Description:
Blueprint: H1 17-24, E1 41-52, E2 60-61, E3 68-70, E4 79-80, H2 84-90, E5 104-107, E6 111-113, E7 123-128, E8 134-139, E9 150-152, E10 168-173, E11 204-218
Antiparallel strand pairs: 1-3, 1-11, 2-9, 4-6, 5-6, 5-10, 7-8, 7-11, 8-9, 10-11
Amino acid sequence: MNARHLVPSLSRPLLSMGSLMLLAAGLQQPIHASDVDLSKFRILIEPQYIAALGDSGATSGNGAQSWGLWSQDPGPRGCKLDLYPQLKAAGVAPAQWKFDAKDWWLEEHGLIMEKPTFPLPAGKYLVTGDRKVTTVLTIQPKDKDGNQRWELADRATLYDVTHLGCRSARYTPATANNTCSPAKVPTTGFPVTPGAAMPVVNGCNKQDYAVLILVGLPATH
C-alpha cells in the first residue's frame, strides 16, 4: 500500500505532503468536501489505512466495531508468498509483526500482511479514496449491544472514499482442522485488478475489506 515499496501497492500523488497542503488550501476540488473545515484536522505526514466493511453505496451503517486500523502502511512490512515457509517457522515477520495461522491477511500484490488493530476507535477521521472525495468519517461509540455506527459527511458513500487499488482480504479456517494456509494461495492473478475481489483460497473463509486512506485526525487528537 506504499508507492515507495519495492512492490508498489498504491500510486498516490495526492498523498504527497505538498498535495495535501493544496487540498487543505481548497485548490483541489474534491466532490462532497465543500463543508469540511480542514482547519479542524491535523494532516498526517504519513497516511494510515482503515479496513472497512459495509455496503459500498451507503453513507452510513452499523458494524464499525469490525473495522480496523493500520497505523503504519502494511505494504512495506508485508511478506512475499514464496517466503511463507520462513514466516511460518519463525512466527514473526522481518518487520516484527506476529503471524497468526488462524487469521491472516493478504494484499493486492500477494503479500501476506499484518492484521489491522481492532476495533477502530470512536472519533472523527479525514478519509479519502485518492480519487475525488475527501470527507469526514465519524465512528460512534459502542451502544449497549456493542454495535458501533459509522457515518460519512456530505452524502459521500463508502465507495467514494475507498481506494480501489488497495485490495485486502482476511482469511480464516473454513474447517476445524485448519487447512487454510498462505501456501494454497494461487500464484497467478496478482496484482489484483483495482476494485476486484481478492482470490479464493481452498480451506479458507475469505472476507474482503475496503481500504480507506486516513489523511487527517482532529487537531485536538
